[in-house]
Design a protein that fits this description.
By secondary structure, the chain is α+β, with helices and mostly antiparallel strands. Helix content is 30%, strand content 22%. The chain has four helices and seven strands, in the order E-H-H-E-E-E-E-E-E-H-H. A five-stranded antiparallel beta sheet has the order 3-2-5-6-7. Strands 1-4 form a two-stranded antiparallel ribbon. A hairpin with a 2-residue loop joins strand 5 and strand 6. Helix 1 crosses helix 2. The N and C termini lie far apart (36 Å).
């Protein structure tokens, strides 16, 4: 395992696991990035072949590092930098959690302000974006 001279927060951002680097840093500080059950700080250096558990919303993703990009990469190039070890059952579990809160019967009309607030509360509670 050679060190790649890149911080974990920057690596998570550059391989598109998080939309912004500050979101990756916040995830590290919140204990959502783990290695062998240990929380990682944003300044931890990434090494090849290390396996990280990343919690993104309701999804517990497991990734193994292959390499580190010089900067943020195109989505098509992401498989060159990590291997997704997340079991298919985890994706199915998250997919089953998602429900459409915004479905309304035809002809019922627009949601009221109260309805809209309840929909937003449910979306926030279940982590749907």
């Amino acid at each position: 395992m050679k060190p790649l001279q890149i911080r974990i927060d920057k690596w998570l951002w550059s391989v598109r696991l998080f939309k912004t680097r500050s979101m990756a840093t916040d995830a590290c500080n919140a204990g959502k990035i783990k290695m062998n059950g240990t929380n990682l700080k944003p300044s931890k250096e990434v090494k090849t072949d290390e396996v990280y558990n990343v919690k993104i919303g309701q999804l517990d993703k497991t990734v193994q590092v292959i390499d580190a990009p010089k900067s943020r990469v195109n989505a098509a190039l992401v498989p060159n930098y990590y291997v997704d070890l997340t079991p298919e059952e985890e994706y199915n579990r998250v997919k089953s959690l998602r429900t459409t809160f915004e479905y309304r019967e035809h002809g019922v009309g627009r949601p009221t302000k109260r309805d809209r607030r309840q929909i937003e509360y449910l979306k926030d509670y279940f982590g749907e974006e």
